[in-house]
Write a sequence for this structure.
């Protein structure tokens, strides 16, 4: 049985309300203010127009996050790694491990591993 349009609409707005503040903050960390606004708006336009396909994904948040980070990378001219993104989300945007997992679609254990890798990179980077 297919979900009703009302259920799909409510699910989209829940996704939007949950993720938009973090997506915008992430974009603002990489782009000028207006570019961050445009990138965030474009993501949610894409998600809204393909919502039934997005929710059919195994992990919709992971799909949206990948699409968004690629868009920000194109606009900024710099591609960041998942480790750099996780570090930014945790240390600069002050998200918890569970919040990062929710917004990126990653498992909490993956988030922890990325934060550990970021710490190792910072330590080894300061040794040289």
């Amino acid at each position: 049985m297919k979900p009703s349009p009302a259920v799909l609409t409510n699910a989209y707005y829940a996704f939007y309300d949950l993720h938009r503040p973090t997506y915008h903050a992430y974009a603002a960390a990489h782009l000028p203010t207006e570019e961050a606004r445009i990138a965030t708006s474009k993501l949610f336009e894409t998600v809204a127009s393909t919502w039934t396909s997005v929710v059919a994904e195994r992990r919709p948040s992971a799909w949206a996050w990948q699409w968004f980070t690629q868009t920000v990378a194109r606009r900024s001219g710099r591609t960041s790694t998942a480790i750099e993104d996780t570090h930014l989300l945790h240390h600069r945007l002050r998200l918890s491990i569970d919040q990062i997992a929710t917004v990126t679609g990653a498992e909490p254990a993956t988030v922890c591993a990325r934060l550990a890798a970021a710490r190792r990179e910072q330590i080894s980077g300061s040794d040289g």
User: Anything to note?
Assistant: The first helix runs from residue 5 to 30. The two ends are 60 Å apart (CA to CA). The helical segments are 5-30, 33-49, 51-56, 60-76, 82-92, 97-104, 108-127. The CA atoms of residues 16 and 44 lie 7 Å apart.
